[in-house]
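[step 3/7] fold_predict: job queued, chain A
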Amino acid sequence: MSAVLIKTPEGQQVFKERSALLAGKLRSAFLLFDGQRTVAEVLAATKGLGVVPADIEALQQAGFLQDLVVNTPELAPAGIAQRSPQDRYREAYPLAVALTGNLGLSGFRLNLSVEGSTCYDDLAAVAPKIKEAVGQSAYAPLERALFA
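[step 4/7] structure written:
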């Protein structure tokens, strides 16, 4: 289980609402999916809580978690239709989470801002702070995902 999963906007909404659909051990496991940890790492970290692979699969089936997919724009065919803000958000969110997650404690609040973003506009508003924190070269893929 070396797959890397991220939270979906639906999962974040259920989390914010403190829904019973995401309670107890599932809530704890859900928090750990940040686009960096593998499923195996999350299972190991939540083993004491009794989280099993079937629980993670249930979160995926419910639409609360999805596979991390990193697109490479340079491999995309020319003439692709304009992407919607939702498509841009879906592509940019895991990149933003990964960038801010690598900042450690110094980027904790910025990471919370990213994880609190639920739409393209929210993430685009946080983007300048991410650029300032990580530098232009690390920020470039996120900039392409959001604004290209």
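[step 5/7] annotate
Confidence is low (pLDDT under 50) at residues 71-77.
The longest helix spans residues 85-101.
exit 0
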